[in-house]
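Final report, Chapter 2: Outcomes

The project's central promise was a pipeline that accepts a single protein chain and returns its three-dimensional structure in a standardized token representation, suitable for archiving and comparison. That pipeline is now operational. To close this chapter, we reproduce one record exactly as it appears in the project archive, with the input sequence first and the structure output second.
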Amino acid sequence: KVLIMPFAGPYEVDIATGTGVAGGTVYGLQSKLISPLKSEYMKLPAQLEVALEQVLKVRYGKAAVSRWSESCAVAPVASDDSVFNATKSANAAYVLSGEFETVKFEGKVVPGPWYQVRLNAKLRNTASGAIVWQIQKHNFDSFAPPSKNQESPQALEEVLFPAMVKSISSAVIEAIRLKK
């Protein structure tokens, strides 16, 4: 069983959209798109948790994957070791945890808005405590030209977010396969 912990962060959100102009920005005026708000990026960790759960359930079955928020009534504690020890009670063979360090957006009309997400993630074996797989300070970035009538956050969700889900879920599946 794989237990997915809530991903923390983002700890830093940087939105660069050009010079402000009376409630609008150069980017907004030129592209006719709405720049993302910092609060919109705070949803990314929960969205990643759900997306990873969906992909891993397809691979391992519904009973083999759960999220901390569904299996444990107690909120996760800050210490990595405490979280690891608490997950043993969930009968998980592996625990996936991570954090968003930064989320950056730079509004550009050409070639399109640029996004960068830096995150850390690791998969631990609950029996041994060993880290089976991890990424540290990994940057996912992309230019994401939005389609007509599309706001910038949707372009992030359609281009960069799927790449993060695919990269992490594929690495987790491969790490578990190699350990068997």
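Archive annotation: The helical segments are 26-31, 38-41, 44-60, 68-71, 80-87, 152-179.
This record, like all others produced under the grant, will remain available to the consortium after the project formally closes.
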